[in-house]
Amino acid sequence: MKGWWGKILRINLSEGRVKAQDYPPEAALSFIGGRGLAAKILWDEVKGVDPLGPNNKLVFACGPFNGLPTPSGGKMVVAAKSPLTGGYGDGNLGTMASVHLRKAGYDALVVEGVARRPVYIYVEDGNVNILSADGLWGKTAFEAEKSLKEVHGRNVGVLSIGPGGENLVKYAVIVSQEGRSGGRPGIGAVMGSKKLKAVVIRGSKEIPVADKESLTRLNQEAYNAVLNSPSYSFWRRQGTMAALEWCNENSALPVRNFSDGVFEFARSIDGYAMEGMKISQRGCPYCNMTCGNVVLDAEARESELDYENVSLLGSNLGLGKLNEVSVLNRLADELGLDSISLGGVIGFVMEAKERGLIKDPEAPEFGDFKKARELVLNIAYRRTDLGRQAAEGVKRLSERVGGKEFAMHVKGLEVSGYNCFAYPAMALAYGTSSIGAHHKEAWVIAWEIGTAPMEVERRQAVRYSVSYNPEKAAKVVELQRLRGGMYEMLTACRLPWVEVGLSIEYYPRLLEAITGVKYSWDDIYRAADRVYALIRAYWVREFNGRWGREMDYPPERWFTGGPKSGPFKGQHLDRSEYDKLLSEYYRLRGWDERGIPRRETLENLNLGFVIPDLEKYVELN
Ligand code: PTT
Ligand code: SF4
Question: 282 CA distance to ligand 2 centroid (A)?
Answer without folding.
Answer: 9
